[in-house]
Design a protein that fits this description.
Layout: H1 2-14, H2 24-36, E1 40-49, E2 55-66, E3 70-72, H3 74-84, H4 86-103, E4 112-116, H5 119-122, H6 127-138, E5 145-150, H7 151-156, H8 159-171, E6 174-180, H9 187-190, E7 197-200, H10 202-206, H11 216-228, E8 231-234, H12 240-248, E9 253-255, H13 265-273
Bound molecules: ligand C2E and magnesium ion (MG) (3 copies).
One magnesium ion binds near residues 59, 116, 148 and 178.
Amino acid sequence: GHAESALLEARRVGGNRTVHYEDTAGVTSQLTAALTAGEFAVVYQPIVDAEYGRLTGAEALARWIRPGFGSVPPSEFIPDAERSGFIRVLDRWVLRTACRTAASWPSDVPSKVTVNVSGQELDQPDYYEQVVTALEDAGLPADRLVLEVTESTLDAESAAALEVLRRLRGLGVRIAIDDFGTGYSSLSRLHRLPADILKIDRSFVAELRPTDQEAPVIAAITALARTLGLRTVAEGVEEPYQAALLRRYGCDEIQGWLCGRPGDGDLVGAALAGPHVVAQVLAGNR
Ligand code: C2E
Ligand code: MG
Ligand code: MG
Ligand code: MG
């Protein structure tokens, strides 16, 4: 039945990697059973224009709503999912779900949905076709999808995987470098990466203090991004003073608890249909 074919799919995509895990089949079948039982969900965290506080889209984040445990965060299941190869099944499901959700948002208001992609998924020979099919099945225009790949993943990627990203960009899909600043990508490599957006890692935002008159690291990252022609999105923005500092250095968009916790995709659609200004984002103006 359904659970069986999903399990076979998990085994198939998990089959061609070296797996350093004792109980791969056990973990894979547990996670696959949870997915087929409908225990996984996608939540959407708002992303807001830094200058005007307008909602511009949302990041799709996976949750395991495990009976008896509640909502399990990705930090607790992604390591197992990566070791067992299940991450590819999960990434595909999140991609397809997020495309359908974003297709339900108002079509006359600009917006985008951003989806995280693991290195294992990017390495799949059919990844390009997977994305095209997800967009077509959902009826979502390609320019409403952003794929997030972490800096360290991108750094390790083969020429073939980077070529797939280039082809996807040719369709209008945008590529974001996630958790920027935590990897070690050389500047020469960075400027050759097929990317449109740089996501400033939450650790740099967390370092900002209310009394700071300057933010040298933010200044450097936003200047670098401008030079390379990349837009910037700051993650983990919790306080109005952080938003104000980021705005001062020309950061384009912000994401974090200040703008909203991850939630139901319908709420993002409803907000986009309304005036959709997040006033707290502008509260730190000085
Ligand atoms: P990420 O892509 O960097 O996502 C941002 C994470 O920061 C999310 O954690 C989000 O809930 C959290 N966050 C957002 N705003 C704030 C804030 O103001 N303060 C603080 N302290 N945290 C904030 P989450 O949902 O636990 O996801 C963690 C990571 O798991 C993600 O980091 C992403 O790398 C990975 N992940 C999530 N869903 C997927 C997925 O579907 N596929 C893959 N491959 N990875 C995923
Ligand atoms: Mg992300
Ligand atoms: Mg991130
Ligand atoms: Mg992060």
